UniProtKB/TrEMBL annotation:
InterPro entries: AAA+_ATPase, ABC_transporter-like_ATP-bd, ABC_transporter-like_CS, P-loop_NTPase. It holds the Pfam family ABC_tran. Residues 5-230 form the ABC transporter domain. The lineage of its organism: Bacteria, Bacillati, Actinomycetota, Actinomycetes, Pseudonocardiales. PANTHER family: ABC TRANSPORTER, ATP-BINDING PROTEIN (PTHR43335). Keywords: ATP-binding, Nucleotide-binding, Transport. It comes from Amycolatopsis deserti. This is ABC transporter domain-containing protein. The keyword ATP-binding applies. Belongs to the ABC transporter superfamily.
Length: 306
């Protein structure tokens, strides 16, 4: 059976709040899938339902074709990081993992292996209560990896990390996916998933707003746009607008031009002796693509029920 997470038609209400409203998507192996949406969109609730910690009112959630409760030795099928602070502060990192391993019938050797994998071997015998948030996140990921599961689910693993920690998690998630695992990572910041996610499931108000390959999303967002670097921004804007282009100022000396092919941009600027140092196909950022994707869903973007 292929390593997957399948969520279909999940609905879940907490009092007046419809936390999940038909949530449906599939997470495939060999990819990092970003699970993105504003606070309260239903990401954590979905993960809790997948792990059998919350019961959905309707719909179903399967891990590699089986409901969580039907899995034998669940840690060897799915690893999860839901809350990095969920540990006994008095226990050492290693004892925390040994305790988890033994509770699941796994050997102690795995504790040392995963500590090494996440770069915590030097602090393995220090009490986890004194760990920084970044170290706790690493320990949480180590715990998720104990059973060497083909499916991983991490809720906001970037939260509170310094830039070095973010770079580490990005590389680590990519390597886990390269090993063929299905990796689902939630975030409320699209920018965190840049250079990490291969696929995106964008959610709002308990349902999927977009389910797309990152490459397709970026290509659509970049379509037909050209980046122009010039020290004469005002002149360039005037000349290109006259030539029929739509021009937006991106940075102090950078313009994003649409509606005019690169060769016509070069010709117009040269004709009017406007200096420029770069004309290139625009590379959209994930953040930019996300804004484009949700542009028409203003209601969704401005939503913050808390
Ligand atoms: N145990 C609960 N009791 C009551 N309401 C809840 C509970 N858990 C979640 N909710 C509500 O369900 C909705 C979805 O919350 P959820 O935490 O799943 O969103 P999220 O996308 O994970 O947000 P965040 O990024 O803030 O974690 C919110 O309106 C939230 O207030």
């Amino acid at each position: 059976m292929e390593a997957t997470i399948e969520v279909a038609g999940l609905r879940k209400r907490f009092g007046a709040a419809q936390a999940l409203d038909g949530m449906t998507f599939t997470v495939r192996p060999g990819q990092v899938t970003g699970f993105v949406g504003p606070n309260g969109a239903g990401k954590s609730t979905t993960m809790r339902v997948v792990l059998g910690l919350d019961r959905a009112d309707s719909g179903h959630a399967l891990i590699s074709g089986t409901p969580y409760r039907g899995l034998r030795n669940p840690l060897s099928h799915v690893g999860a990081l839901l809350d990095a602070s969920a540990l006994q502060p008095g226990r050492t990192a290693r004892n925390h993992l040994l305790w988890l391993a033994h509770s699941q019938g796994l050997g102690g050797r795995r504790a040392d292996e995963v500590l090494r994998q996440v770069g915590l071997e030097e602090v393995a015998r220090r009490r986890a209560g004194g760990f920084s948030l970044g170290m706790r996140q690493r320990l949480g990921i180590a715990a998720a990896l104990l059973g060497d599961p083909p499916v991983l689910m991490l809720d906001e693993p970037f939260n509170g990390l310094d830039p070095e920690g973010i770079v580490w998690i990005r590389g680590f998630l990519r390597s886990l996916a390269r090993e063929g695992r299905a990796v689902l990572v939630s975030s409320h910041l699209m920018s965190e998933l840049q250079d990490t996610a291969d696929h995106l499931v964008v959610v709002g108000r308990g349902r999927v707003v977009a389910d797309t390959a990152v490459a397709d999303l970026l290509a659509t967002a970049a379509a037909g746009r050209v980046t122009l670097r010039t020290s004469a921004r005002a002149d360039a804007m005037t000349v290109l607008a006259r030539a029929g282009a739509t021009v937006a100022a991106t940075d102090r000396d950078v313009l994003t031009v649409s509606g005019l092919p690169a060769e016509r941009i070069v010709a117009s600027l040269s004709e009017h002796a406007v200096p420029f140092s770069e004309v290139s196909a625009h590379r959209a950022s994930l953040e930019e693509a996300y804004m484009e994707l949700t542009r028409d869903a203003v209601e969704f973007r401005s939503e913050d029920p808390r």
